Amino acid sequence: MDTLPLQLKLTGERCLLVGGGSIAARKLTMLLRAGADVTVVAPQIGDAVAAEVPAERLHRRAFAAADVSGCRLVMAATGDHEVNQAVFDACQQANILINAVDDPELCTVMFPAIVDRSPITVSIGSSGRAPALARIVRSVIERALPPGIGKLAEFLQARRDVIKTVKTDLDARVHFYDDLWASGISRALEAGKLDAAEELFEQGLSSTPNGEVAIVGAGPGDAELLTLKALRYIERADVLLYDNLIGPDVLEFARRDAEKIYVGKRKRSLQTQQDRIHELMVEHARAGRRVVRLKGGDPFIFGRGGEEVDVLREAGIAYTVVPAVTAAIGCAAYAGIPLTHRDAAQSVRFVTGHRKEDRINLDWPELALPNQTLVLYMARGGLREICGELISHGRDADTPAAVIENGTRPDQRVLKATLSTLPDLVEATEFTGPTITIVGEVVALAP
Ligand code: SAH
């Protein structure tokens, strides 16, 4: 962090604005909105500035160092580097905060882009490096914040003590605020329906938190492929259980104070680890927490999501399953492979290449039929066997085939070959991430 964002109280404080043009006018509006007592100094003062400031506070002359004395904050909006420099020097001498517009070198404070839903304000800074970008971020935030949020802040401020007395535990308070937010209370306040808002508030206050588990698909890697629903569950989770397939940028969306538990299958045996996941889900949900079990891709595609649901159902715990982009869909799209195509493939099959009791038990004659695309999950180890079986059951040895590693992520890699050449290529390659295999004429259609 190059600068520390703070919120400055300026009510009744003396401030100096050097400059009288249109940019000065914009800064003046902000200072006045914050209640500052502003004096303006500039040889020429435009109408926009003059209209807002009492005549005795307007000085139509050049800046003098003594002007800064007694000020809390000084703004230089002159467009003249030399004048800005003189203002800066005077302020440094007197230890006064100074902001020179478009002159980041001559600033001890930066003016952020502001979203004003008072008393809620959001300031977006770029430490003077990319103000244009800060303005874009502002418009994103503007759209995300309902207009009634300022009223909600006032409504809640008046009820803070009650909330603290009833919701003594921190998690309970967080849940209460989350639920209240989701209840649409800010819309009610915006529409002036105070009774409705009061009712929603009372309902939230009297409800006791129930633990719940969301089995959330996080997609194949690229965090932008998360669904809105997945994002909502991740953001409000108290506890997140995640494994190897979950990228760090997905976890970034979780609350800072949420507990993030790694339950990957790197160290323990598959079954021990699956049992541990079941235990953790049940234990945390029973303690009233919001648990998110994050799964790579879609929870119900080769993800043991079904077993997790059985456990929750048996334990009588409320649960939701949030579907997602599965690896086949994500990897194919990012590799430019259409999984079906009018001429080349009329169906697509998601197949596991996982060995069970040392064999890959698949219906080879059916999988070897032409005009279909096969997407093979967990197939790297058994690739030679799979390709061999497909060829010996009649699939053309020249059928295009590809292996995609780290699909949808920045380090995605695509290896293209044919059914007969793919096993050698894969054995000669080192992999660090998950891979998926696509077999079918459609692979040749990728650029
Ligand atoms: N539920 C997941 C699949 C879990 S099985 C889903 O719907 O995608 C794990 C297998 O998925 C891996 O062995 C690999 O074959 C595949 N996989 C998951 N993410 C992948 C990625 N980003 N790139 C390539 N393969 C991936």
Q: What secondary-structure arrangement, pairings included, does this model have?
A:
Layout: E1 14-18, H1 22-33, E2 37-41, H2 47-50, E3 58-59, E4 73-76, H3 81-94, E5 97-100, E6 113-117, E7 120-124, H4 131-144, H5 149-157, H6 160-166, H7 170-182, H8 185-190, H9 194-206, E8 212-217, H10 228-236, E9 239-242, H11 248-251, E10 259-262, H12 270-286, E11 290-295, H13 305-315, E12 318-322, H14 327-335, E13 347-352, H15 364-367, E14 372-377, H16 383-392, E15 400-405, E16 413-418, H17 422-427, E17 435-439
Parallel strand pairs: 1-2, 1-4, 2-3, 4-5, 8-11, 8-12, 9-10, 9-11, 13-14
Antiparallel strand pairs: 6-7, 14-17, 15-16, 15-17
Helix pairs in contact: 7-9, 12-13
Write down the overall mean pLDDT. 93
By CATH reckoning, the class of the largest domain would read Alpha Beta
Shape: elongated
Q: How many structural domains in the coordinates?
A: 4
In what range is the share of β-strand residues? Answer: 15-25%
Main sheet record: 5 strands, parallel
